[in-house]
Amino acid sequence: MKNTFVHLRVHSNFSLAEGMLYFDYLSDFCLKNNQPAIAITDTSNMFGVLEFSLEMVAKGVQPIIGIQVEIAPSSLDEINIGEVVLIAKSEVGYKNLLKLSSNLSMNKDFDKFISYENLLENKNEIILLTGGVEKGFIGKPAGFGNSNLVYSRLELLKKLFNDNLYIEIQRHGTKNEEISEPLLLQAAEDLNLPIVATNDCYFSSPKKYNSHQVLTCIDKGLTISSPERRLLTKEHYLKDSSTMLSLFSDIPEAIENTLIIAQRCSFSVKTHKPILPTFPGLKNITENDHLFQISLAGLYKRFEISFENFSIEKKVAYKARLKKELNIINEMGFSGYFLIVYDFIKWSKDNQIPVGPGRGSGAGSIVAWALQITDLDPIKWGLLFERFLNPERVSMPDFDIDFCQDRREEVIQYVRNRYGHDRVAQIIIPISWDLDP
To answer: Of 367, 294, 359, which is closest to residue 325 (Cα–Cα)?
Structure first.
């Protein structure tokens, strides 16, 4: 494996409005280029680590889980903030990364930095790379030739991370990198710290450089001619092993250390059964029984307020469908989910917040109709419950719900207050940004 290299600085499409690398491309790239492992180091988030791990393992590539973050070990002054890469060596390290990334997102001011104290509490089984010259905690001052700050910060990090600290050497061809490299190499020798070669990767090839520039401009609301826009280089692409070996041929230990770091990391994220929340406030009654009671009461209310004539035979058929659905919901363990959705939709309607009538497969549930989660009678319109929940094809239920755009934030705030701010999140799906004609 001496003639290969492992990328430890990769920004996937989960580095939102920044990265353009997709997991299937990464796995195919590793196989094609004889790279045994690859890291994911998205900016300030770990949204993609599960999908990344599953894709790499399926292709026989070792996934390395990391994150790029900014740290501020002294004051909150902007001059003291700089980026580093944190990489999990094991499950313990992975869980510590989750804590650190969660703390980033849950900070009430949403400041994108990790404090010295937070880093100290969660540093076990984590490798730290010191950052590049653009924003790096060590690399940026090195790029300005500030040796005093470089040495003082490295000594601070060495106390924290010991042999889990690596000085990054990057060669994208910038002037600041040329200034920083002699200083970083000398500091590595003086402080007995290993160096590691990294290439900060955002896109797949130099041809994608212009697309990436457009993407970063869209993110900041700028134009290509704007002097304020972020300037990367065409070298910030995912390079093959031969290119990296040639680029660092004069310091081969920097290449070898990418393999050593890969060997020190032995964790991949695996799937597990969903951990569903419980419905709060129930006393002396189970979720299943409570759902049965309010569903049956809701069905009778639907009969009363309907303009249609519900004969006895028709009511029997509706009740039979309701009980059949409830049995499936109970068996699959989703009673709490229905209760929670019912709860915040009821609150919305009680507070005159417009809610959509329902769409998607959830509209096929008579339980949802009885609870007024949806307003479409699934029997009248011939909608199938099995498209929503099916014991033979176990998957999570998913109600598509539309709220008034002017007041949807009130609904989100209610859910936060009711179930806990640390248990509520919004999700997105990254889209493809391939802007080349």
So the answer is: 367
- Which residue is listed with tokens 């709490």? 336
The upper half-sphere exposure of residue 217, i.e. CA atoms within 13 Å in the direction of its Cβ, equals 14
The model carries a pTM of 0.87
Instruction: List, in order of start, the domains of the chain with CATH numbers.
Output: 23-264 (3.20.20.140), 287-423 (no CATH)
349-373, pLDDT tens digit by residue? Answer: 999 999 999 989 999 999 999 999 9
Give the pLDDT confidence of 99-145 residue by residue, as tens digits: 999 888 877 654 678 988 899 999 999 999 999 999 999 999 999 99
Q: Which helix (H) or strand (E) holds 172?
A: none
Which residues on neighbouring strands pair with residue 85, listed in sequence order? 68, 129
CB 56 within 8 A of CB 63: yes
The count of other CB atoms within 10 Å of the CB of residue 363 is 23
Residues 6+ apart with CB under 8 A from 154: 130, 138, 165, 167, 187, 191, 193
Provide φ and ψ at 219, rounded to 5°.
-60, -40
In this predicted model, what pLDDT tens digit does every residue of 147-176 receive, in sequence order? Answer: 999 999 999 999 999 999 999 999 999 999
Q: Across-strand partners of 237?
A: 203
Helix 312-332 and helix 335-350, axial crossing angle in degrees, nearest 10: 120
Q: Which conformational region is residue 318 in: left (phi greater than 0), alpha (psi within -120 to 50 degrees), or beta? A: alpha
CA angle in degrees (0–180, nearest 5) for 259-265-270: 130
Closest Cα partner for 70 from 163, 150, 134, 151?
Answer: 134
Cβ–Cβ < 8 Å for 254, 196: yes
Structure tokens at 384: 């199938």
190 burial (CB, 10 Å; 0-12 / 13-18 / 19+) is: exposed
Alpha helices for 275-353 (secondary structure H): 287-305, 312-332, 335-350
- Of 64, 74, 21, 12, which is closest to residue 39 (Cα–Cα)? 64
